[in-house]
Amino acid sequence: MFPICHLLTPCLDKKETTLTTNKYLDTYANDDICGPEVRHGLRRNISSDLKYPKSTVAYVIKKWKVSGDCRNVPRVGRPTKLGDRDRRGLTREIRKNRTQPMALIREEFQQANGSIVSMNTIRKEAHLHGFHGRAAAHKPLITKYNRSARLMWGKSTSKLDCRSMETDSLE
């Protein structure tokens, strides 16, 4: 199946394709990359012919294979403040000491990354990564004596049938 962008004839007033300020390729550059892929071209050859990095060519081809279109669609909403690298740094800071307050985590994160982030952003990202301000469940201390007593109780109750257990629990 050919992408929709190749069924259209290319415009004659095609500008020289360069990376824009937002680091997206324009539609014509995407079309140039998707076209040879349809004709079974190698990514290495496409990148050398069109003078684009191999990673850019691979990204555009992957986008075309997943969505079936090679146009840049505008994103909905405001861009996120933290990138992938910042998120990894934040999880690293949280794991150093999970019990410290968010204010200290925020200060250490800002010193490490040099980016200014609000407390709400730090809290939201921490929640997304599974760090919550919850106390752990209190586990009973199971000593050697307690373990044997529990085992004996379990064996004695497993021999009873359901009716006798119901009458015992009602008393």
From TrEMBL:
<dbReference type="GO" id="GO:0005634">
    <property type="term" value="C:nucleus"/>
</dbReference>
<dbReference type="GO" id="GO:0006313">
    <property type="term" value="P:DNA transposition"/>
</dbReference>
<dbReference type="GO" id="GO:0003677">
    <property type="term" value="F:DNA binding"/>
</dbReference>
<dbReference type="InterPro" id="IPR036388">
    <property type="entry name" value="WH-like_DNA-bd_sf"/>
</dbReference>
<feature type="domain" description="Transposase Tc1-like">
    <location>
        <begin position="87"/>
        <end position="155"/>
    </location>
</feature>
<protein>
    <submittedName>
        <fullName>Protein-tyrosine sulfotransferase</fullName>
    </submittedName>
</protein>
<dbReference type="Pfam" id="PF01498">
    <property type="entry name" value="HTH_Tnp_Tc3_2"/>
</dbReference>
<dbReference type="InterPro" id="IPR009057">
    <property type="entry name" value="Homeodomain-like_sf"/>
</dbReference>
<dbReference type="GO" id="GO:0015074">
    <property type="term" value="P:DNA integration"/>
</dbReference>
<dbReference type="InterPro" id="IPR002492">
    <property type="entry name" value="Transposase_Tc1-like"/>
</dbReference>
